[in-house]
Amino acid sequence: MADGDRAASCEWFSAAALAGVAGMPGTERGVRKMAEREGWTARNRSKGKGFEYPWTDLPATTHAALLLAKRPAALASTGPVKRQGKANVSEARIHDAWKRYEAAPQHIKDIAGRRLRALQAVESLIAEGHSAVDARQAVAAQLQRENVRGASVASLYRWASDVAKVEKQHRLAMLLPEYSGRTATTEIPTEAWDLFKADFLRVEAPAASACYRRLESIAKVRGWALPHLRTFMRRIERELPRGVLVMARDGVEAFNRTFPSQERDRSVFHALEAVNADGHKFDVFVKWPDGTIGRPIMVGVQDLYSGKLLGYRIAETESADLARMAFRDVIENYGIPSKVWLDNGRGFASKMLTGGVANRFRFKVREDDPTGVLVAMGCEIHWATPYHGQAKPIERAWRDLCENVSKHPAFAGAYTGNNPTAKPENYGSKAVPLDTFVKFLQQEIAAHNAREGRESRVCAGRYSFDQAFNHSYAQSPIRKASTEQLRQLLLTAEVVKADSSDGSVRLADNRYWSEALGAYAGQKVILRFDPDALHTSVQVYTLSNAYLGEAECIAAVGFADTQAARDHARAKTQYRNATKKQLQAERRMDLATLVNQLPEAAPTDLPAPGVVAPLFGNKARPKPQMQPEVEQFARTGTDDSRVSALSDFLERAQASQTARFGWTPTEDDA
Q1: CA–CA separation, 537 and 398 (whole Å)
Q2: Same domain (yes/no): 32, 58
């Protein structure tokens, strides 16, 4: 007798448990009378009142019903068990049976479970001494009473034959029905099926009924016999994966959402080790100082470890200059981040910021590209997908600011709505001055960073972004930028020309001056500046990018402001006195000493002429007659001696030529 059968033969059942079971009366009183009538062994119940009766005294029909109601041990197995001993059924067949069992729906698995319980019930009855025929008849009758489809003695024979050579742990899989329900479908003409898919699988997502009506109009002309629309839709669901349907009717973005997003653990960083930056346009109309009205754009930089917004700048448009100044605020106030995540927008992918990065994918990368300021500071640049929250967590911060800033009560009437169809009723009735917008924006960003109970992995529902950042920042290695590096992050203005008188320069209606500019009066220089602090100072460079110094802003004052006039005069006097002292220090020798050192002029001695042009026939040539007034100015007191000397020289030259060549000039030659 098997262990399970032996355990069943030792069981005791109360009249309440047996009432209504096959072969038993329907009430407890009827069960007790039947037990008295047939002389069953009875004993007092261990709990409660009444008697209980042993398994061995119950009829075979009741045995079959109780056995079928019990869950077989084989059902507890969730997969194939390694076989032991010699196998009569191939491993491949058993493996295929379990694969088919796991892929089957639950109602098919339940059928296999009922078949296994029926076979185990037959075996238990046979083990108790009943004949195999009686056992199968009793079990089949009970299955029929339970309205089990196909239950009969022949079925029990067939099921037993299916598992006759299979070990007990594999019986459940082998008893799985091989049928899978109705599979026959009405044939759809191939061309009709292709036309229906072409119409249905569009991003416009037309209704299936509309596609079917259009197909019906074509079928009437072609003479096709179309099945019902439900046949088309069942085939769509059966043959096309969900991803194909979503991509075809909802688009690529919806398809991307069907793939689980990656969870990135930012707790692996420390404060300021990694940041990400992005731009955001607020849904608020703002009036700028020049009178124009538009929606402001903010470029923000967020710490990835804590989620804190570290720096931001506001402007009318997103640009490389705006991103540059936002990073300058972060570097000046906190330090230099080691890793930076950016998208490939024109502002962030500009050569001014990221020039020299090998994996830049906006604009061409050339060998002679200038090194971007972030790259020069040793920042490791990473590129993220635009509008992708998993790649740029700052997108989550923008959602908070959209709610807390754009819909702030101070901006009522200036809110534009987050899309063209969500405009409020008071749309365009107000424009907020820029300074008012910046004031409330600063308040909301401070509140955003200070809000406690953040649910990020770092904050753990207990801390704010500020608290998480400060705790890590205090114990992390931070790189600081030098003054020279901070100057390189300032914006570069157009080349300006210094005033030819005092060397002052002008930028955006402001005037700047320093002593270093005096040497470049009338020359062109380069200015670097912070556009939000033009009233303080600018940094001055030569055209060759050599640093000259800082030039303070000289503010214009009222015409009758006597105090300002006195301050200006005092500063001018101090500058003049300092210059005089410097000049005196440079003049270590007075002018009288300089004059005494000058040498006296020496007399000029003319050297003898090297070559004198000849003049032939001077004696025979008649002397030209001059006018009295001409002769008065032409001759001098030394003319007679010079003429005599020249005549003697010419006579010697003629005699030398005669001796050498034997030639004497004639009168005509003379």
Answers
A1: 33
A2: yes
CATH number of the domain residue 148 falls in:
1.10.10.10
User: Is there a single domain that holds both residue 345 and residue 373?
Assistant: yes
Q: Cα separation of 51 and 30, whole Å?
A: 13
| pLDDT score of 78 more than 50 | no
For the stretch 591-614, pLDDT in tens is 556 556 666 655 656 666 656 656
Same domain membership, residue 50 and residue 158: yes
Each residue of 507-522: b (16+ CB within 10 Å) or e?
Answer: beebbbbbeebeebee
Side chain identity at 8, as an amino acid letter?
Answer: A
Q: What length does the chain have?
A: 670
* Amino acid residing at 584: Q
Judge contact between 552 and 537, C-beta under 8 A: yes
Query: What is the token pair recorded at 136?
Result: 């199968």
Element (H, E) at 43: strand 43-44
pLDDT tens figures, 469-523: 999 999 999 999 888 888 877 776 678 898 888 888 888 778 898 888 888 888 9
Q: What is the mean pLDDT of the chain?
A: 78
What's the CATH number where 508 sits?
2.30.30.130
pTM for the whole structure: 0.53
CA 393 to chain centre: 8
* CATH code: domain of residue 408: 3.30.420.10
Strand runs labelled E in 235-387: 274-281, 286-287, 293-294, 297-303, 309-315, 339-342, 380-383
In a domain, 396, yes or no: yes
Q: Answer yes or no: is 118 within a domain.
A: yes
**Domain hosting residue 244, numbered range:** 190-257
- 303 and 435 inside one domain: yes
291, with CB counted inside 10 A (0-12, 13-18, 19+), is exposed
Q: Is residue 585 part of a domain?
A: no
3-state secondary structure of 171: helix
Where does residue 430 rank: exposed (0-12), middle (13-18), buried (19+ CB within 10 A)? middle
Same domain flag for 271 and 311: yes
Using CA atoms, how far residue 38 sits from 31, 35, 41, 57, 58, in Å, is 11, 5, 9, 9, 10
Q: pLDDT tens digit string along 362-398?
A: 455 555 444 567 887 888 888 776 655 556 788 888 8
